[in-house]
């Protein structure tokens, strides 16, 4: 395999015939080129001039022309081109379709999955894929600087680059939760900040893929007049932004009075047709499915497996940020449950292609008021839909998740666990974590609360490397945070509230109040 990609890349960077490199070690929360980008501190001697010249030649991306950079980030033509197609998720259904076909369900009515030609991808060695992904990430070469499109061959290999609709999403940081980890007896706890994205949630990762494919279909064959979704808030924000960027009309169905104002204003600002319906998410989902059956509106919800292809890149990013080592545990909030299967797909793809050697164990965290997967887990995976009760973790207030059987497959394959958190638990643990430097959405609070329970009962070990996926930014949920700290929530007492001190503008009163809280 050394004669394929490494032989192609080496001349661009002045590498030797084998492109030798030394991988960095230690904790790492960002991205960089893997070609000798990490140089160990040498306290015993000073580097020679030849060593300095060699190091400089390996870090010469900045000195390349745009054409050379693009060439360095593009694989040479392979004997078997990369490809992907829809297949039925249910293995007893043999139907399959082109990704250019507007289709949401398999022949027998079940969900679809995107299947890649793994033999074609295996033409390149694990080292070559790692090298390629590392050198693309965080760059500005279109479209590879995106955390999603840096893995383009593993996502949508057949789409032309000019059809991609991207805001350079992904590449989100890993927050080393050192202080909070110590509070709950953990030494290696991390939070993947997927909310640090264009619209403030991980939904951007899937929406860039879906809207890009829609853009490609419209250019190639037409037949789509708009893209629509049902949403608990974050999906509508992502759809509106990406459709606005592409110039494609978007339509969103929202459950009335069940999402935050910050979530509501996003599709309004991006020009979507916003429809507020007197029902819950599950009701909105049924209605949007009826509408797309009758009109040329493309369905953007997670029953559409294209979005999962973008969301699975979170798994690849996590491994990449740990220098291609897989964590012991991944903890993720669960609502419609597509992300659970997406993360599984990403880790499995890496393992199957030899980039990693094992799978992590998955934990799905649900709010007690919307816990159909948790109930199924406790009852031998016997799933029964429920009517979800109101929860402050509004984005996962779903009683009949579309991707439940996808999630169950992933959890069974990874020896996974499902937990739940009450309203008070999710808000209290979220507040405690905020005091260690985070700024959590309620859904991350659910995940952290479940994590603490699993740590307390010994399921997760003190030294297990654990990554909690934070799915949205806390700024989208300031209403519930303010109410918590003002102790105005009927669902939670506010045991860790930090209310604003309101006093007259008098120095003696200020000093008195400060002395109550700080040793002066």
UniProtKB/TrEMBL annotation:
Outline the extent of the Tryptophan synthase beta chain-like PALP domain.
165-471
Q: Which CDD domains match?
A: Thr-synth_1 (cd01563)
Could you tell me which InterPro entries the record lists for this protein? Cys_Synth/Cystath_Beta-Synth, Thr_synthase-like, TrpB-like_PALP, TrpB-like_PALP_sf
A cellular component term from Gene Ontology for this protein is: chloroplast
One Gene Ontology MF term:
threonine synthase activity
Q: Which cofactor does it need?
A: pyridoxal 5'-phosphate
Keywords assigned by UniProt, alphabetized: Amino-acid biosynthesis, Chloroplast, Lyase, Plastid, Pyridoxal phosphate, S-adenosyl-L-methionine, Transit peptide
Please name the pathway: Amino-acid biosynthesis
Q: Which GO terms describe its biological process?
A: amino acid biosynthetic process
Q: Give the family, as the similarity comment puts it.
A: Belongs to the threonine synthase family.
Record-given protein name: Tryptophan synthase beta chain-like PALP domain-containing protein
What organism is the protein native to? Rhodosorus marinus
């Amino acid at each position: 395999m050394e004669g394929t990609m490494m032989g192609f890349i080496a001349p661009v960077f002045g590498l030797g015939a084998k492109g030798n490199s030394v991988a960095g070690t230690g904790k790492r929360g960002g991205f960089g080129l893997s070609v000798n980008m990490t140089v160990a501190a040498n306290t015993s001697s000073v580097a020679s001039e030849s060593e300095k010249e060699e190091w400089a030649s390996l870090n010469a991306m900045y000195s390349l022309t745009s054409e050379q950079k693009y060439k360095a980030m593009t694989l040479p033509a392979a004997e078997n081109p990369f490809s992907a197609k829809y297949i039925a998720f249910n293995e007893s259904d043999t139907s399959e379709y082109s990704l250019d076909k507007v289709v949401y369900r398999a022949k027998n009515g079940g969900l679809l999955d995107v299947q890649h030609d793994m033999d074609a991808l295996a033409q390149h060695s694990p080292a070559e894929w790692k090298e390629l992904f590392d050198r693309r990430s965080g760059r500005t070469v279109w479209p590879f600087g995106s955390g999603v499109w840096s893995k383009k061959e593993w996502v949508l290999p057949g789409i032309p680059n000019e059809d991609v609709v991207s805001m350079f999403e992904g590449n989100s940081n890993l927050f080393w939760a050192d202080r909070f980890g110590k509070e709950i007896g953990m030494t290696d706890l991390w939070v993947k900040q997927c909310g640090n994205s264009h619209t403030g949630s991980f939904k951007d990762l899937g929406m860039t893929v879906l809207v890009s494919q829609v853009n490609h279909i419209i250019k190639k064959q037409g037949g789509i007049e708009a893209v629509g979704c049902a949403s608990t808030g974050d999906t509508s924000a992502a759809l509106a932004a990406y459709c606005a960027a592409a110039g494609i009309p978007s339509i969103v169905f929202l459950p009335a009075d069940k999402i935050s104002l910050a979530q509501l204003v996003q599709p309004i600002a991006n020009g979507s047709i916003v429809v507020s319906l007197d029902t819950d998410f599950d009701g909105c989902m049924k209605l949007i499915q009826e509408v797309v059956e009758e009109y040329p509106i493309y369905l953007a919800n997670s029953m559409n497996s294209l979005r999962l292809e973008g969301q699975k890149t979170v798994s690849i990013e996590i491994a990449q940020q740990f220098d291609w080592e897989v964590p012991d545990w991944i903890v993720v909030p669960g609502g419609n449950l597509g992300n659970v299967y997406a993360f599984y797909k990403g880790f499995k793809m890496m393992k199957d292609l030899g980039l990693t050697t094992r799978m992590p164990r998955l934990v799905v965290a649900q709010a007690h008021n919307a816990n159909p997967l948790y109930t199924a887990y406790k009852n031998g995976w016997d799933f029964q839909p429920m009517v979800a009760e109101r929860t402050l973790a509004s984005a996962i207030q779903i009683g009949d998740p579309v991707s439940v059987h996808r999630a169950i497959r992933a959890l069974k394959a990874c020896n996974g666990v499902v937990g739940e958190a009450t309203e008070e638990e999710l808000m209290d643990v979220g507040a405690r974590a905020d005091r260690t430097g985070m700024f959590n959405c309620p859904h991350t609070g659910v995940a952290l609360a479940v994590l603490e329970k699993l740590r307390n009962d010994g399921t997760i070990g003190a030294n297990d490397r654990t990554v909690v996926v934070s799915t949205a930014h806390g700024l989208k949920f300031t209403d519930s945070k303010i109410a918590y700290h003002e102790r105005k929530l009927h669902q939670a007492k506010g045991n860790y509230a930090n209310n604003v001190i309101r006093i007259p503008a008098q120095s003696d009163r200020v000093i008195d109040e400060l002395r109550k809280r700080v040793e002066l």
